[in-house]
Every structure is written in C-alpha cells, then in structure tokens.
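Troubleshooting: if your tokenizer reports a length mismatch, compare your output against this known-good record of 487 residues.
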Amino acid sequence: MPELIIHLGDTTVRQVFSGTPVLDEVLQAAGFSLPHPCGGRGACGKCAVQLSGLVSAPNAAEQRAGTRLSCQAVLLGDAEVTLSQASSDARIETSTAVLDRPLRPLPGKTGAAVDIGTTTIAVNRYDLTTGTRTGTAAALNPQISIAADVMGRIDAALSGKLSLLRQQVTDAVQQLLDASGPSSPDALVVTGNTTMLYLLTGRSPDSLARAPFEADTLFGTTVPLFGGQAYLPPCMNAFVGADITCAVLASGICERDETALLCDIGTNGEMALWRDGILYVTSTAAGPAFEGAGISCGCGSVPGAIDRVALANGQLFSRTIDGAPAVGVCGSGLIDAIAAGLTAGLIDETGAMDDDELPLAPGVALLPRDVRAVQLAKAAIAAGMLTLVETAGAQLSDIASLCIAGGFGSHLNVSSATAIGLIPAELANRVCVLGNAALSGAAQALLDRTCIHALERIAAHSRHVALGGNPRFNEHYIDQMLFGQEE
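Known-good structure output:
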C-alpha cells in the first residue's frame, strides 16, 4: 500500500493509506490536525505544507514550488510531507485568579478545570484536599482542522462529522489531562461555549442551526467524562455559553452594586452587562481575525509572532515573541499595527492604505484585505457593546468597569484598541483584564461547590439581547466600520 511520511520537528511518522485520499484525511488518521479558517475550501492558505511525491492539487500552478494546501492536495501514491512546528508551540492563556473563597471542593482527591474554547483548550489540575494547582496544560483545539468558527463546525456536524468532532475534542482534553497529572481526576468542571459542549457530549447541534436558534439543552448537569464526574456549567443562550457564565462568576460583577460590562473579545464576541439586578447578554460573530486566522500573515502566539508594534520617529517597529525572527503577526500585534498605521497616516479612517501593503518585518506585511477583516471584527464587537448598553437603558458613563476576558484580551494593548475604536474611549481607563476568566470560574466551582449555585443564579438572572435584525445594532455596525470613535 502507498505510504505518507510525515515530518514534524524531530518526529517522523509513517502512515499507509488506500485509494486517492485528500492529504488532510491521511494526516488526521495519523493524529495531526492543521488549521482551516476557511472551512477547507482552499481559500485561506493556512494549511500550506511542504509536500513531495505522487500528488495532485487544484490550481497547483498558483502555489509555491513544493508547497500544497493540505485540504486540496490529493495523494496518488507514496508521498512525503513536512509540517510546521509553530502551531504546536502556541502560548495559550492558562492563568487564573487566586481563589478567595473557603475550600469546599467537589468530591474526590484530585480535580481539573477545563476550558474548551473555539480556538484553544486549557486545563488546570488541582489537589482537592489543599486547593493547590498541581499542573497545567494547553493546546490548540484540533477542531480548527474542520472549521475556524462555531457555525462552520455546526455545519460540519450536521454533514456527518459529529463523531469526528467529538473524538477530536475528547482526545485533545484527555491528552492535556495526561500531560498535567499522573491519574484521572475524580472531579472536573468543563466549561465552553454552547456549541463546544454540544460537540463534547456528541449532541446534534441541529437546534443551533435553524430558527428560532434556541438550544434544546443549556447543560448545568453532571456527566461521566474522562474517568471522573464532570460538571458542565449552565449556558445562558444558544450562543452565550457556559464559558461566559464562568467568566461572570470569576469577575464578581454580579456581586457589586454598580453597572459593569464584561466582554470576551474573540471569535464569538460574547458580552454581559450587569445592571439593576439583570444580566444582559449577547454575542456577535466577530470572526477569527483577532486570533490571527483569516489574516494573510496571521499566526497564533508562537515564537516569532509579532505581538507588539510601535511608532517612533515616523517608523514602525515590531517586537516578536522570544525575540525570534518574525514568522507572522498574532492578534495583539495586529491591533497595534493598525493603530500605528492610523497614527502615521498610512491607513485612513475608512481603512484605505497608501500602499499595497503595510510592512511590519522582513517577510511580514498587512494587506488591504487584512485591514478589512479587522474592520469587520472590531465593528461587530463595538456595535454589540453599544447595543447592549442601550438595551439596558444605560450610557457609557454609567459603566464602572469594563472587564476583558479571554486569551486575546490578556495581551491586548488598551490604547491601541481604543485608537481603532474596538474599545470606547470613555471606558479606556476603566478596563480590567481578567485573563482566562472562563477557566478561573471553572476552577472556583471545582474548589468551592457553592459556586455551582452561583453559576445557576447567574444564568437565571440573564436576559438575552438578540442582535440579528436589531436596527440599532445594524446602525452601530455601519458607524463602527470606520476606524476611530463614533461621534
């Protein structure tokens, strides 16, 4: 039978196959997953690999010599592929707030808090007798090999890939649990957005894909998983998941007598506003631009990723993670770059650029379509914030704090985010960065079982604000397409 030789760093794997499969299928069978922000349509170029041997691919003449897209290349016989080490070296946020509650853990001696994000998965292990964190591990969510966002994965699940998606996420979590501790945890709290929990439990997401887009379960249940008993916190809506419920718990905003806004700025753009005893929640499809996906030179937080860009003496200067040679730009560097470009006059408020590209480092430059992707993403987030505030009968001046949750938010330069209009200028000095608040909330529930009731109360006090067809959201969205602040 024909054989594919797979190289990843110092590792070499040989995988036999039959017929003439697409390269992705053979890689997945061998345990390798590559990102496909475009859903495997061959449009984003993020799954490019060095491939040789008996292969064919559509539009092969348009691809660099020896480089093929794994979602398009068809194996006709023996072949050899070299994968990039970069994606496996991504830095993923696993920091959590220090527990300031009495230790009243879930039953057992060992426990784990798990956050299954659309892009990343993070695990923290704990000794339940002392509350001490004993291990941590994180990785990219392998489901990005199917699609970058939840809608793409819902479509894939309904097209016959539900079992594959479930296997991918359960295998990934199990590997992280194995890497972070010597035995199966007795108790777990596993959080994530609603779609991620559907896929984790193998539940068909059909109800999430059609009107009226209401989940047929919002979880808040305990199920056997990964060798222990796993509590799945309650979601608040089909597209406002348990990760936001946990983030709200970690933020403590519902325990204070003030108006406060929490925002997880990521692929889904989920938000919660606490005002007068009601938690107004919503989500907006920002897309994966802030994760570096869908950007021509985008990448994750890997060594060599540009994570900071500054303007000095009229020139752009870039910093890379670990000081390594630039390989691309991650989300925080992307926001910095556009803010600096605006200040320097290289990009105007409409997103138009003076030149065909904005160089950031040798071999790394932003293209007009990259700037456009950020415009769309930031407009969705900013318009969602403004609509949520209006719906609650509040004004920006009423908001005492803006809590930013999630991995992207942990590294966000607030001044750059304000400069492009992602964060309202009036809230810039009220920003509180929480880190991985979803993981923090899951850990609190693991180590203090009374927090489970708190999570249920948070969900019960929530009121969903629909943005689809909302005229005020549409008006704000159009206004927010311009860089800078809405007048």
